[in-house]
Amino acid sequence: MNSAASVRKLTVRHRRTTALDAVDLAFGTGVHGLLGPNGAGKTSLIRVLATVAPPTSGRVELLGGDVSAPAHRTAVRRRLGYLPQEFGYYPGFTVREFVAYVAWLKEMPRAAASAAVEGAVARVGLTDRIDAKIRTLSGGMVRRVGIAQAIVNDPDLLLLDEPTAGLDPEQRVDFRALLRELGRDATVIVSTHLVEDVAAACTEVTLIGAGRVAYRGTPHALAALGEEAGAEDFGDNPIERGYAVALRRHRSGAAPTTSGWSVTR
Amino acid sequence: MSRTTTHPLRAELRRGVGLPAGAATLAALLFAMYDRADGWLTGWTDTTDMLRSAGVIVGAPLAAAAACWQGGRERRRGTEELLATVSRARLRRTLLAAAPTVLWPVVGYLLTAAVCLAATWQYASDVGGPYASMLAADATAIGSLAALGFLVGRLVPWRLAPPLVALAVFSVDPYIANQDSPIAWLSPGKEHVYAWDRPVWWFGPVSMVWMAGLAAAALLAYATRRRARALALAPLAAAATAAVLIVQTGEGVWRPDPASAALVCDDGAPRVCASRTHGRMLPDASAALAGLSAKLRAIPNAPTRIVESRGDGHRARRTDATLFGWDYYFRRNRIVEPEMFAANAALDATAPPCPGVSDKERYNDLSEAVAEWLAPMPRPEPPIGQDAPGYTRALAKLKAMPDAERTRWLGGYFAAVRSCHPERVTAL
Amino acid sequence: MTTNLLLYARSRALPVTVGVLIAAAPATAWFADWLVSGSGLGPRARQPLVVLAPLLVSAAIGASLYTHSEELDRTAVRPWWPRRACQLLLLTAVAAGLLAMAVPGESQVYGAYAMARNVLGSVGVTALAAALIGARLSWLPMLVHTGAVYFTARAEPGGPGAVWAWSVQPGPQRAAWWTAAALFAAGTCLYALRGARPEGPGSRR
């Protein structure tokens, strides 16, 4: 399979807790939603894919190569976009300066950077504030600056950890459109708690529960799963119900066979 | 395309703590230099010396603390996570982030230097000039200490790290500068004394290598990958070589400049001579010494020149009376303590021009009485202690003598003393 | 109540701060001894110490004025000013007492008087800075001031210079004391009333 990002037997441990346990996953072009309860391992997966954290064990291949090789890791980083869960920025910089700074950090050619910065800022709808200092922006705008810096280099692999936190409903609708657009050429992996985002923007859903893959499929299939299960007491829409059902099945199904790896937190 | 996106260095330099840090350095330095203006508005060497001290004592701690604060920025702003995923080499990123707090304080220092040198222009003599290489060495030292402070900030996640870095610079540099060994010359702010000295030509460049080498080695060790880390040894070796060169030369890094040390004299009798460095003090010096000169002129065997001395007992001629440390009596080439100036010249005139002549009490009393008659020493109010009876008697006799007799006696006095035989002085 | 106070103390990093204050005293005493015995200057040699030790402890006290939760703090039921004033006064008293004991003898010449005065003045400047520019950078103005007057350390005692160069005066000069006391009073009042300046979003730690 020609996937931009794939992990095999990926295990991540933080001290004594296991965040990811021998996970096999592959992501191709398109928008992938990462769902799962807090602490399930979504952020750990994204951090490994972003080359921030090395895996405890397992193999991570990004954009056609193993990232444990420094040369390839650098090449990957040039083509990577990343919005961390806690997005840090320099409040004294203007939007333009900050996004240009990230473009420089990603070694974009200077000639192309200028237009790319303006393009990225336009895509998140901040053109009218491009020369405003970030400190003067609202929380939702700062989040959009975070998205702009992630897409400034037109990444082949885009990792967004809870990008919609702090966006208002209208901005989220725009953002989903942007995701769909980006997903046409790139591999976009979005971690989120908002299942509507997944339903509206993602081509595929990966549900992570307690360090393992609980479910993989299209949002449509996940919704269908919710419908199948019928009148369960969770969720206001099919996909939320699907989420609950898949997670519940994963827990109950996993419990007898994998009692040895139950995660304590 | 509307505006071109320029290099991120521009943003780094304009935003954040760098510019305020440079402004604070500039303000503190200008204040410190203004406060001690009387100490350096005399000549190029004095200005250079004072700028160097101020740069290290006032500028460097500030710069290092600001840089240390800047070094902790990624931690405070939470950008470490994002920075861990970028392709740009760590060394380039480190240099860029360190740039504002390294460059702006240096700019602040150089601006201060420019202002002070411009101010010196109207007071300094026509020989010598600003020692640009020494100022560049000091600017390098400030930048290097700032770079080291930045690295401390990167590595030490403590809110007290910046003030502690400042404290360290405050104390370590004077500690090194006050060492009673050639090691003291490794301190970039080490003061030296003589106004007519100039640094040997390599002292500035080698000092630069010494401080910049340390900073570069630390930067490379921090910001390169394991295999490239050996590169840090190169600047370290350069710094060590520079240090050895400086320590071995010791005091010789400053040498008398013959052009500045040469004497310029007025055409009075006796002649009053200053080093060319202090040539602009000469008119006031002549005026202050006019009374003394008039008396000496009439006395046979009296000194024929009153000369600024180099302070190491050196005198060109036996017939010179010497006077050391003119800076003390002058402010901006105007004399401020003329009586003291004349009295000290008289004291040297009445002393034997040779070291190691025994100080007999009778001779001392006489010598001081003669000096007092020639140019009275200003008395502190209230007077300290009591004059020796021998001195009081001698002075009274000297004042009471008829002019011709006194001149004859003084001629004998000077003949004996100036030939280093004070015991031949006849009693009054 | 004791638990609450302990929690408050921990929220302001007071254990570390008090640790710094306590550690500063013997270090100062050792350096004072070393300076006096090592130079020919006698008690005058303590001057750098009398200037720099208060700078350090005031920086530590200033750092402890930082709150991680100032939005939350403002919603508190109890008024904050007594706690803030108490914190500042107690820490200052501890610092001044400990450091004054660290430079025994010759109290007129860069001894206990000057040390206590400089602790008061430095803490005053630092508290003012915390209220005006934020606690994390509160050490900066005192550092700038120290840098500027440290160089003029040879200034004569007394005279108009004692007003602004208060921290390098040898001891009993009245103008220096007045300046330091006024700075301390102003800093304590402003900080107690207003608290440390909030340091904006995104400025964690």
From TrEMBL, chain A:
GO terms of molecular function: ATP binding; ATP hydrolysis activity
Keyword annotations from UniProtKB, A to Z: ATP-binding, Nucleotide-binding, Transport
InterPro entries: AAA+_ATPase, ABC_transporter-like_ATP-bd, P-loop_NTPase
ABC transporter domain boundaries: 5-235
UniProt keyword ATP-binding present: yes
Cross-referenced CDD domains: ABC_drug_resistance_like
Family that this chain belongs to: Belongs to the ABC transporter superfamily.
Protein name: Putative ABC transporter ATP-binding protein
UniProtKB/TrEMBL annotation, chain B:
Keywords recorded for this protein, A-Z: Membrane, Transmembrane, Transmembrane helix
Sequence intervals crossing the membrane: 16-34, 54-72, 93-121, 133-153, 160-177, 200-223, 230-247
The keyword Transmembrane appears for this protein: yes
Official protein name in the record: Uncharacterized protein
Lineage: Bacteria, Bacillati, Actinomycetota, Actinomycetes, Kitasatosporales
UniProtKB/TrEMBL annotation, chain C:
Organism superkingdom: Bacteria
Keywords: Membrane, Transmembrane, Transmembrane helix
Keyword Membrane: yes
Transmembrane segments: 12-36, 48-68, 88-107, 119-139
Name assigned to this protein: Uncharacterized protein
Lineage: Bacteria, Bacillati, Actinomycetota, Actinomycetes, Kitasatosporales
